[in-house]
Known about the structure:
The complex is a heterodimer of chains A (about 110) and B (about 110).
Chain A: E1 4-5, E2 10-14, E3 19-25, E4 32-38, E5 45-51, E6 56-59, E7 62-68, E8 71-76, E9 85-92, E10 102-103, E11 107-112
Parallel strand pairs in A: 2-11
Antiparallel strand pairs in A: 1-3, 3-8, 4-5, 4-9, 6-7, 7-8, 9-10, 9-11
Chain B: E1 5-7, E2 10-13, E3 19-24, E4 31-37, E5 44-50, E6 53-57, E7 64-68, E8 74-78, E9 87-94, E10 103-104, E11 108-112
Parallel strand pairs in B: 2-11
Antiparallel strand pairs in B: 1-3, 3-8, 4-5, 4-9, 5-6, 7-8, 9-10, 9-11
Amino acid sequence: DQQVKQNSPSLSVQEGRISILNCDYTNSMFDYFLWYKKYPAEGPTFLISISSIKDKNEDGRFTVLNKSAKHLSLHIVPSQPGDSAVYFCAASACPEYGNKLVFGAGTILRVKS
Amino acid sequence: DAGVTQSPTHLIKTRGQQVTLRCSPKSGHDTVSWYQQALGQGPQFIFQYYEEEERQRGNFPDRFSGHQFPNYSSELNVNALLLGDSALYLCASSLGHPRGGYTFGSGTRLTVV
């Protein structure tokens, strides 16, 4: 039972354009969401997070939106070739689930120059 | 400042054998979590250690066990290896119980043949 879903296995975007990565979740207990980026042979790196009570969080070129029921999106503007990586959406539910993270399967982003 | 260090980086074991993976958390961190990432999937939570005790456990069999030492480093042990245990094993450290904000290591790639 996949509680966090990233339905697009891959996404290809031209440099300078916007990248939009989507994430859906089924468990209504989740109250905190995070995005991680992973390069090959490296561990996931934290990008940005958002609480369920907020609808937007921005950090430089990265914005996470939480405006639709059980749906999140990560926007990268403008996209750069160095953004090419696997992006994971993760969710947590404290205190019910402790602090463990539940990850989606990831989306491979390729930014073409 | 060293981040999370995992050893070994790669490992090949035979079905039925036992394996021990090691993790040194980021300096100043006291909590260690272990995740299993199978090919094409997101990381799955195995367990978390804090103050040398297993605080939380995911849906993994008892063949998976762990330990945390007084210096906060940790080991993951897997007994009676199965082919399906082949995966990237990630260690993540944190200070206390953050809502996200985990620092991941680069992982140990375990192959069971």
